[in-house]
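We store sequence, tokenised fold; for instance:
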Amino acid sequence: MKKIASLILLLSLMVTALAGCGSSSGEVLHVFNWGDFMDMDLIRDFEREYGIRVIYDEYDTNESMYARLKAGGNYDVIFPSDYMIAKLISEDMLEEINYTNVPNYQYIDSDFLGTNYDPEGKFSVPYVWGTLGILYNTEKVNETVDSWSILFDSKYRNEVFMIDSMRDSIAVALNYLGYSINSKSEQELEEAKQLLIQQRTDVNPVYVNDEGKDMIMAGEATFFVTWSGEAMQVISEDERFDYIVPKEGSNLFIDNMAIPKGAKNKENAEKFINFMLKSEVAKTNIEYIEYSTPHTEALGLLDEETQNNEVLYPSDEVIDKAEIFIDLGTFLDVYSRVWREVKNQ
């Protein structure tokens, strides 16, 4: 499977790093990315082209990435989601990008510029985008799947995987209840908490991350709350599966490349970002990770079937109902408390 191949390549890169033979110049670049979120062959291509050794590390949530940075993690390129970009900017934890060194930024679709999380585009470059929804096994469901409600139905006890991510799982509950996924109402958060706690009693969901893809294909669940790109990876391997964005609405996310404040190799980081924005590189990468690309030329290079795939490139109706997460500021403490109380049940 792709994940196994990725792990083998990652281990190979780590061995190369330890051996100190990835670069003749002695220059290094520390990259911190989501798990299984880049074609690792492109890392080798970058090393060969620039003579810069890449030390590559992975995380599973925005919050774990943030915690690593706060603890003094030494990275040059990171891949935060929209709301985390806003948080990092507010805490002066990102470097401004010198776009003279990133000429391929011109290929980013204007729809992804001037965002609420980085209005002037000084600190982040869109990498991929997608939606949050439900991946499900069509052979095990005899009803229409179009609502978050199916995740709370007791007849599917022991058949639901929830994503082990605070903002995403709470968003499911808030959306189902008809509230904004960026709610700052303690009463609405309390209702969302009670719904998720009741789900644990009625449905007994399992909270998973990337491993959920292999587990659902192995028959360990019927439903998996996940991101569209993860869902597409499963659908590409197994035709039993489909993916929907529930009618109540969902999250539309944009993951970005950014440079942490105080990065020791800022110019190399900008070289790397520009490299990832080369049209052929962006195309190769998006074909591997199977998310949605904000890169206009890479999109045009994809085959027609992919360009018209509604899992990756949903209708305006779906997008119009979706929200982008915002930085909650100090209200994040309420979400953290709710999440702890849900997970401790």
Observations:
- Residues 88 and 270 are 18 Å apart (CA to CA).
